[in-house]
Design a protein that fits this description.
The complex is a heterodimer of chains A (246) and B (1029).
Chain A lengths: L9 H7 L22 E6 L8 H10 L9 E11 L2 E11 L9 H4 L5 E3 L5 E3 L9 H5 L6 E3 L4 E3 L5 H4 L6 H4 L6 E5 L6 H12 L3 E2 L11 E4 L10 E4 L10
Parallel strand pairs in A: 1-10
Antiparallel strand pairs in A: 1-8, 2-3, 2-11, 4-5, 6-7, 9-10
Chain B lengths: L1 H11 L2 H16 L21 E3 L6 E3 L3 E7 L8 E7 L5 E6 L17 H7 L6 H4 L6 H5 L14 E3 L7 E4 L2 H10 E2 L7 E2 L1 H4 L20 E4 L7 H12 L4 E2 L7 H11 L8 E3 L6 E5 L10 H13 L4 E5 L15 E4 L6 H14 L5 H4 L4 H6 L11 E3 L33 E4 L2 E4 L12 E6 L2 E7 H9 L4 H8 L3 H11 L6 E5 L8 H15 L8 E3 L13 E2 L25 H8 L18 H10 L7 E5 L3 H4 L3 H10 L6 E5 L12 E3 L21 E3 L20 H12 L5 E7 L4 E4 L2 H14 L10 H7 L5 H7 L2 H13 L1 E3 L27 H4 L27 H4 L7 E6 L12 H6 L5 E3 L1 H7 L6 E6 L2 E9 L7 E5 L13 E2 L2 E2 L41 E7 L1
Parallel strand pairs in B: 7-36, 10-11, 10-24, 13-14, 13-21, 14-15, 24-25, 25-26, 31-35, 32-34
Antiparallel strand pairs in B: 1-2, 3-4, 4-5, 6-7, 6-26, 8-9, 12-22, 16-20, 17-18, 19-20, 23-28, 27-30, 28-29, 31-38, 32-35, 33-34, 33-38, 36-37
The chains are: A alpha+beta (246), B alpha/beta (1029).
C-alpha cells in the first residue's frame, strides 16, 4: 500500500496473474540425461494458506536483499458471479523461478552467465554476470531481479546449495500447508513423481504458468483453475510488498 | 521480480519508492560493472552454508561444524511452536528458524521421542524424500521474528526515567540501584516520596477497614502480563506465593476471552474455561464462526496445515462465518472451503437460528442428550454427556430461582453444610417421576415443564434443554436471518450440514467473539456441539492433550509450594471478577433499600480481567494501586479504548506511584514505566509452555537459551531478566520461596533458587519423570548435535546425576511430547484419549443464578440471542444510532504481524501497512476509492488510515488488521543516557483499531466497553463512520 494505490481493475488482476492458462500435459518421460536428477516442483494451491513462510524462509536462507523476492505468494481477493450472485474468495499463487526446459533468460544473456545445470536448475554465474538485466526483462514470469547489493541478476535457485547437500529448498521445508512438493522427476518412486501421477489419476489438472510462452516450466501447479481466466474481478489483497509487483 | 514493480510504481507514482528505484538505477549507470559487493558464492550468492549434509545413498549425516541447530520454542505468537534454530557458532547469531519435527505444533504427525537427534536431522532432509513427509515448519512470522534479536530498539540494561512519564527519556542504571530503589522507595524522581515494595508488602492492614473484603494493602501491588510463555509459574511464585498479592493477570480478557468464557459456560468452569477444537484429522464438516484457521489463531500452523490437508486429500468441508474474508478461504479448494459474511456481533442470532431449525426438524441427537450422567452415556456408547435433562427451578421469586433442583430439595437427607454442593445431586425426570441424576440408570426426559413440591410448596421446574429450546424459539428463523444478515435458507443449510455428519462435525469460535454480547454468542456456538453430541469423538470436538507440569509438587521437586508460602492471597481482585453480593457496598446499599446498581459492574462468572484493571485503578474502584509490574505485555495497545481513558492517569505518578516494566522492548504501555528491566527474548529464554489447543496429545515445549541472552550480565554471569530481577527482589526483601534452600525434593532435601536454571532445570526433571515412565537418557551424540552440550556443566551443577541425561534428553528434543499414535483411545479407537468427562452445561446455574450488578436482573442461564449492549443492559444502538454511526468496526488477526513484531523489517517489507477494508457499496456511498486516505471516527476517537475497497468484507463493516498503528517499538526514538535513538516512522504505519475503542456511556468514571458477563473487551462492532481525509 505504501507505494501507491492498490489496483482494483480486472486488467490489473490479469496483469498480476498474467499466466493462468490451460496447461500442458504432465511430462511423461524423463527429460534429462539418464542417471541424472531432474529437479522440479509441484505446487498444490489447494494446500496453500498464504502464510508467506516460504517467502520469509527464502529471504533468510538466501539473504535476498530487502524489498526483493525470489519467491512470494501473490494473494488476491476474487469476486465471482456464481448463479447470479456475487461472492468473494481468496486466491493464492505461490510464484518462483520455473526452471524452464527452454528458459527465455538463457539465450539473451550476452556473457553466458545464466545457464541450465545438468539437473535442470537454472543458475546465474555471479563471476560472469554483468548485471545488464536482459534476462530480467526476458523472463515471462518476472522471476528475476537485479540484486542491489551485488548488481548481479538474482533469482530462485531451488536452493541448489541445499539440494546439492541432500537437503530440501528452504521454501519447501517450511511450507506450512504442505503445498510445495520438491523432487526428482527422474525418480519414479519419488514423492514428486508419485504426487503427479496421483493427481493425474484423480483428475486434478496439472498446469504450468504461461504455457504459450513455450518455456516448458518445471514448476507445476494443481488448482490453477481456468475459472480464474477472463471471468474474474479481482485485486491484489492485503499483500503489497514495498517494492514488488507480485 | 522488480521490473513488474517498477511498472506499477511508474503507473501509480509512489514518490518514496520511485526515489529508491531511481537511485539504484543511477548508481548502476555510473559504474555499470563493478560497483556491487561481489557475491560470496559464484552460483549461490550470499545464501547460507548448509547446516548439514545428508548422503543421498546412505542417509549419513555430516554436520557443518560452523553452525548449530537446536530445538526450542518460538514466541512469535502465543501458539509457541517448537522450532529449530540455526545458529552461527562463531558469532552466536541466529541464521534461520524452521520447525522442530518432535513438536506437534510444527509437524503432523510428529516424530516419536525415541528417534535420536541425528535421526531427526535426517528426517528433515531430501534423503528418500523424508523431509516432505516429516515437514516441520515455521510460519512467515516465525521465519522472520529472529530479526528482533538484533533490533536496535532492544532494552539491554535497566533504565530509569529521567523526565516525566512517557517522555521517552531514560538513564541506564545499575542493577543494584534498580533493586535498591524499587524495594526501598524514596524521592526517586524528585517528585516526592514513592513507597517501595518493601513498605507496600503489608499483609495485614486492610486496604479499607470499611470494606475488609478487598483484602490487605499488599493487593495494591499488581502484575499484568500476557500469556504463559512457560515462565508464568515463576512470576506467579514471586507475586502471589512469596510477595502475597492477589493481583496477577494475563491478557485473556482482551485477547479472545469472550470465546473462552462462553466455552467455559458449556464446560461448567468459568474460571479455567476449557475449550475444544475439531479433531481436524477426521472432522468432515467444521463450522468456524469468528475464527479463521489457516489465517491466524492458535495453534496457527497446526490448524492451517490440517485444514490444507483436509480440504485437499482429506474429507474436510468447512465454512468460515465472519465479517471478513481471510486466508482461511482458498478458491482453489473449491466448495470445500466457503466463506459466509455476517454482521458484527450477531453470531448469536445465527446459531440460535440454527438451533431453531435443528429443533424444528429433529436434527439434534436426542438419544445423546437424554443421558443424565456419564455412566448411562457410556453404557450407550457415548464418551460424553450433558445436563440437558437436569431440572431447573424457574418459579418466579423462589429463593433458588435459576438454580438446579437438587436431591435435598426432594428430601435427600444431607447435612446443611453439604446442601447445594457437590454431594447434592441434580434431579431429572425418569419414567416414574423425578430421580437423582447420579442414580439414574436409564435415559431421562428431555423436555420437561413440570411442578414439584419443595417443603410443601409447589415449584415450577423445567429441563435445561427446554430452556434452550425456548431461547431458540424466542424468534423466528426469518427474524434471526434479518438480524445477522445471513439468508434464512443459508442458516437452514448450515444447520442441516452441521447435523448431517453424525459425530464428525464441530463448531468453534475464537477472537471474532469480542463483541458487546460476545459471551452469549460464544456460548451459543459451542452449544451447537452439545446438540450433536460430538465431544470426545474421533472427528468431533476434541480436547487439548495438555502438558507435562513442570511447576507441580513433584515427582522430583516440589515447585508448587514452599515453607512460608502465602497459601491463598486474600481479598478481591482488582478486575472485580467476584460476586458483588459479597461486598460491603452491596450490604450497605441493600440496607439502604437499593442494592443495585453497584458503582461499577462486577463479573462473578469471569476470570481475571485486565480489561478492568487500569480503569479500575484510575477510578480507585474497587481500590487504587500503588505499584504496577508490566511484564511482557502491552495493554495500552491491546485494550480497545483504554488509552484515551487512562493515558493521563498513567502519566500521573500520584495515581500509580510506581510502575516497573520488564520487557526486551519499549512498547506503548511500558513507555509509561518508571523503570524498565530488560528481559530475555525469543531463543534466549527458559520456559516450559504447553499447547493452547488442538493438540490432542500431551505436549510440553522446552524453551532454553540456545543462544546467550544479550542483556547485561551481573557479576556472577547471569543475564538480567525477569527471573534474576525477581530473585534479587526476593533476596532484598527476604521473601520466602527464593534463595538458598527454597526448593525441596521428594525426600525433603533442599536446593537453592538463586538462578533461572535452578527453577527450569528442576521443572524439567519433573517433566522427565511424569507420564507412564520417565524419558530415556540423552546420548552424547544427542547432546552434541543439539547444542545441549554447551549447557552440560550447568546441568551437572544443578541436577542430580541420574537427572542430567533425562533433562538433556528433553532439551535436546525441544520438549516432551506424547506419541501421535496415542491420539485415540486404547479402549475405543473412535474416542479421543484425552476426554472431558464432566457434564456439558446446556444450562449453567452459576450464570442463570447470577444477577447483573448494575440492573439487578438475572442473567439467562443458557445460550441466547441478545443485542450488543452496555453495562446497564441498554443496546449499543440505543446510544449510537445507525444514522450517526452507519458503520461498524471489526478487528481481524494478521497472518503475518503480531502485536509486537512490527519492528522486524522483513515482515514490513512484505506488508508495510494495514489498509482498512471497506465494502464496495459502502465505498461508493462515502465516495471513497482504494488508496484514499480516510478519517475513521468512533465515539472513542479517530484515526487516519487508508482504505482498500474490498469485496471480502461484509457491507456496513470497516475491517482493521491487528498489529499496526504503533507509537512505540521503534516508531518513536527514545533518549537514553543522553543519546537520542532514531525513530522509524515505518514502524508506526497503519491503524490500531484499539485506539478507536469506546467507553461505556452508561458507566460512571473511566471505563472501556466490555461484555456484561465475561468482562471481555469489545473490538468487533464498534459504531463508526468514515470520511475522506
Amino acid at each position: 500500500m505504501s507505494d501507491g494505490k492498490p489496483s482494483s481493475t480486472r486488467r490489473a488482476f490479469l496483469q498480476a496473474i498474467p499466466a493462468i492458462t490451460a496447461g500442458l500435459a504432465l511430462p511423461t518421460s524423463a527429460r534429462a540425461a539418464p542417471g541424472k536428477h531432474h529437479w522440479a516442483m509441484l505446487v498444490d494451491i489447494r494446500r496453500c494458506i498464504g502464510c508467506q513462510a516460504c517467502t520469509m524462509a527464502c529471504i533468510m536462507e538466501n539473504a535476498v536483499p530487502e524489498n526483493s523476492f525470489r519467491t512470494i505468494v501473490s494473494t488476491y481477493v476474487v469476486q465471482q458471479l456464481t448463479a447470479g450472485r456475487t461472492t468473494a474468495g481468496t486466491y493464492m499463487l505461490p510464484r518462483l523461478c520455473n526452471h524452464c526446459e527452454d528458459p527465455a533468460c538463457v539465450p539473451v544473456c550476452p556473457v553466458g552467465a545464466t545457464f541450465k545445470r545438468d539437473d535442470g536448475i537454472v543458475v546465474v554465474d555471479g563471476d560472469r554476470c554483468v548485471g545488464c538485466a536482459y534476462c530480467v526483462q526476458a523472463c515471462p514470469y518476472d522471476a528475476r531481479f537485479i540484486n542491489h547489493a551485488t548488481n548481479k541478476a538474482d533469482k530462485c535457485t531451488f536452493c541448489a546449495h541445499r539440494v546439492d547437500a541432500g537437503l530440501l529448498p528452504a521454501c519447501v521445508e517450511t511450507c506450512v500447508g504442505g503445498a510445495r512438493i520438491f523432487g526428482d522427476l527422474n525418480d519414479p518412486q519419488g514423492t514428486l513423481r508419485r504426487s503427479l501421477n496421483a493427481a493425474k489419476k484423480n483428475g486434478d489438472a496439472i498446469k504450468v504458468l504461461k504455457p504459450e510462452a513455450g518455456t516448458r516450466p518445471n514448476v507445476f501447479y494443481i488448482g490453477l483453475d481456468d475459472r480464474f481466466r477472463g471471468r474474474v474481478e479481482g485485486q491484489a489483497a492485503l499483500w503489497h510488498p514495498t517494492s514488488h509487483g507480485a | 521480480m522488480t521490473f513488474n514493480t517498477r511498472r506499477k510504481i511508474l503507473a501509480f507514482g509512489g514518490l518514496a519508492a520511485f526515489g529508491t528505484g531511481f537511485s539504484a538505477t543511477a548508481k548502476r549507470m555510473l559504474n555499470p560493472l563493478f560497483d556491487g559487493d561481489a557475491p560470496k558464492s559464484r552460483y549461490h550468492g550470499a545464501s547460507l552454508e548448509p547446516e548439514f549434509k545428508v548422503d543421498p545413498a546412505s542417509g549419513a549425516l555430516r554436520v557443518n561444524p560452523a553452525q548449530q541447530v537446536s530445538y526450542t520454542g518460538c514466541l512469535g505468537c502465543t501458539t509457541q511452536c517448537g522450532v529449530r534454530v540455526r545458529i552461527d557458532r562463531a558469532s552466536g547469531k541466529v541464521l534461520r528458524v524452521a520447525g522442530n519435527p518432535y513438536s506437534p505444533l510444527s509437524t503432523e504427525p510428529h516424530l516419536p521421542m525415541k528417534a535420536s537427534v541425528r535421526d531427526s536431522f535426517v528426517a528433515l532432509s531430501g534423503y528418500h524424500d523424508k523431509g516432505l513427509a516429516m515437514r516441520s515448519t515455521a510460519c512467515g512470522r516465525g521465519n522472520a521474528v529472529l530479526q528482533q534479536m538484533d533490533s536496535p530498539f532492544r532494552v539491554l540494561r535497566p533504565m530509569k526515567r529521567v523526565g516525566p512519564r512517557n517522555s521517552g527519556q531514560w538513564e541506564p542504571i545499575s542493577f543494584e540501584q534498580l533493586i535498591r530503589e524499587v524495594t526501598e522507595g524514596g524521592d526517586l524522581f524528585g517528585e516526592g516520596r514513592v513507597e517501595g515494595l518493601k513498605a507496600l508488602r503489608d499483609l495485614t492492614t486492610p486496604i479499607d477497614p470499611r470494606r475488609p473484603e478487598l483484602g490487605p494493602k499488599v493487593n495494591q501491588v499488581a502484575l499484568i502480563t500476557s500469556t504463559n510463555d512457560g515462565r508464568l509459574p515463576f512470576a506467579k511464585r514471586f507475586v502471589q506465593q512469596a510477595y502475597g498479592s492477589i493481583n496477577f493477570v494475563g491478557h485473556g480478557s482482551y485477547c479472545g476471552g469472550a470465546y473462552r468464557s462462553g466455552s467455559g459456560a458449556l464446560f461448567g468452569d468459568m474460571k479455567k474455561m476449557p475449550h475444544g477444537k475439531p479433531d481436524y484429522a477426521n472432522t468432515q464438516f467444521a463450522l468456524f464462526i469468528g475464527t479463521a484457521p489457516g489465517n491466524a489463531g492458535n495453534p496457527f500452523k497446526r490448524q492451517g496445515a490440517m485444514l490444507a490437508r483436509g480440504r485437499s486429500e482429506g474429507k474436510l468441508n468447512y465454512v468460515v462465518v465472519d465479517p471478513v474474508l481471510t486466508n482461511a478461504n482458498n478458491l482453489a479448494a473449491g466448495e470445500r472451503a466457503r466463506w459466509v459474511p455476517i454482521k458484527p456481533g450477531t453470531d448469536g442470532a445465527l446459531v440460535m437460528g440454527m438451533m431453531h431449525w435443528m429443533f424444528e426438524n429433529g436434527r439434534y441427537d436426542a438419544k445423546y442428550l437424554s443421558h443424565p450422567n456419564l455412566a448411562v452415556a457410556k453404557a450407550a456408547g457415548e464418551p460424553s454427556w450433558s445436563n440437558a435433562t437436569h431440572l431447573v427451578i424457574v418459579e418466579a421469586g423462589h429463593p433458588r430461582q435459576g438454580r438446579f433442583l437438587r436431591g435435598s430439595d426432594l428430601g435427600l437427607d444431607l447435612p446443611e453444610t453439604e446442601r447445594y454442593k457437590e454431594n447434592d445431586p441434580f434431579a431429572v425426570t425418569g419414567a416414574n417421576g423425578a430421580v437423582r441424576h447420579d442414580e439414574a440408570t436409564a435415559p431421562a426426559q428431555l423436555f420437561v415443564d413440570d411442578t414439584v413440591v419443595i417443603g410443601g410448596a409447589p415449584v415450577k421446574v423445567k429441563s435445561s434443554l427446554l430452556l434452550l429450546h425456548e431461547q431458540a424459539h424466542a424468534r423466528s428463523l426469518d427474524e434471526y436471518a434479518a438480524i445477522c444478515g445471513i439468508p434464512a435458507q443459508t442458516i437452514a443449510a448450515l444447520a442441516k450440514e452441521f447435523s448431517s455428519h453424525g459425530k464428525r462435525a464441530a463448531a468453534i469460535a475464537q477472537g471474532g467473539m469480542m463483541a458487546g454480547n460476545g459471551f452469549y454468542n460464544a456460548y451459543g456456538v459451542v452449544t451447537l456441539n452439545a446438540l450433536i453430541g460430538n465431544l470426545n469423538w474421533k472427528g468431533g470436538l476434541s480436547m487439548n492433550g495438555g502438558g507435562f507440569k513442570d511447576a507441580g509438587p513433584g515427582p522430583r521437586y516440589n515447585l508448587a509450594s514452599f515453607p512460608g508460602m502465602i497459601e491463598k492471597p486474600k481479598g478481591l481482585p482488582l478486575g472485580r471478577n467476584a460476586p458483588y453480593e459479597k461486598t460491603a457496598e452491596f450490604a450497605a446499599k441493600k440496607a439502604a433499600g437499593k442494592a443495585y446498581p453497584a458503582q461499577a459492574p462486577w463479573f462473578p462468572n469471569a476470570p481475571g480481567l485486565a480489561t478492568e484493571w487500569l480503569t479500575g485503578a484510575a477510578n480507585g474502584y474497587p481500590y487504587g494501586i500503588k505499584a504496577l509490574f508490566v511484564w511482557s505485555t502491552n495493554p495500552l495497545y491491546g485494550i480497545p479504548g483504554v488509552r484515551a481513558q487512562v493515558e493521563k492517569d498513567l502519566a500521573d505518578p500520584k495515581k500509580i506511584p510506581l510502575i516497573v516494566a520488564i520487557d526486551p522492548l519499549i512498547n506503548e504501555s511500558n513507555a509509561f514505566a518508571d523503570y524498565i528491566v530488560p528481559d530475555s527474548l525469543l531463543y534466549e529464554s527458559w520456559g516450559w509452555p504447553s499447547a493452547w489447543g488442538a493438540v490432542p496429545t500431551k505436549a510440553s515445549t522446552a524453551r532454553w537459551p540456545v543462544v546467550e541472552p544479550k542483556a547485561d550480565k551481573l557479576a556472577d554471569g547471569q543475564a538480567i531478566g525477569m527471573e534474576t530481577f525477581f530473585i534479587a527482589l526476593a533476596h532484598a526483601m527476604a521473601l520466602p520461596g527464593f534463595g538458598p534452600g527454597a526448593i525441596a525434593d521428594m525426600d525433603g532435601n533442599t536446593y537453592p533458587l538463586e538462578r533461572p536454571e535452578d527453577w527450569y532445570l528442576r521443572g524439567g526433571a519433573n517433566i522427565a519423570w511424569l507420564g507412564k515412565e520417565p524419558v530415556a537418557d540423552a546420548s552424547d551424540d544427542d547432546m552434541v548435535l543439539s547444542g545441549v552440550e554447551r549447557l552440560r556443566p550447568m546441568l551437572e551443577r544443578t541436577l542430580k546425576p541420574e537427572e542430567v541425561r533425562k533433562v538433556a534428553f528433553i532439551l535436546a528434543r525441544g520438549g516432551r511430547y506424547q506419541p501421535a499414535k496415542e491420539t485415540y483411545s486404547e479402549d475405543n479407537p473412535e474416542w479421543m484419549t484425552h476426554r472431558f468427562e464432566n457434564g456439558l452445561q446446556i444450562y449453567n446455574e452459576n450464570l442463570g443464578a447470577a444477577k447483573s450488578s448494575i440492573t439487578g436482573k438475572r442473567f439467562i442461564g443458557c445460550a441466547t440471542w441478545t443485542e450488543p449492549g452496555f453495562a446497564d443492559g441498554t443496546a449499543m444502538r440505543a446510544h449510537y444510532s445507525e444514522a450517526e454511526w452507519p458503520l461498524q468496526l471489526v478487528s481481524f488477526k494478521s497472518a503475518l504481524q503480531n502485536p509486537y513484531s512490527i519492528a522486524a523489517p522483513r515482515l514490513r517489507a512484505l506488508h508495510p501497512e494495514n489498509p482498512v477494508l471497506m465494502h464496495p457499496a459502502d465505498a461508493a456511498h462515502f465516495g471513497l476509492k482504494s488508496g484514499d486516505g480516510a478519517v475513521i471516527r468512533t465515539p472513542g476517537g479517530s484515526a487516519h488510515g487508508r482504505v482498500i475497497v474490498h469485496a471480502g468484507v461484509m457491507q456496513g463493516v470497516l475491517a482493521v488488521e491487528h498489529g499496526f498503528g504503533h507509537r512505540e517499538l521503534g516508531a518513536r526514538g527514545h533518549r537514553i543516557g543522553g543519546t537520542q535513538q532514531p525513530g522509524d516512522a515505518a514502524i508506526g504505519a497503519g491503524v490500531n483499531l484499539n485506539d478507536l475503542g469506546i467507553s461505556d456511556p452508561t458507566r460512571e468514571g473511566k471505563s472501556v466497553w466490555v461484555d456484561a458477563v465475561s468482562g471481555t473487551a469489545v473490538r468487533n462492532g464498534l459504531p463508526a463512520t468514515v470520511a475522506r481525509a
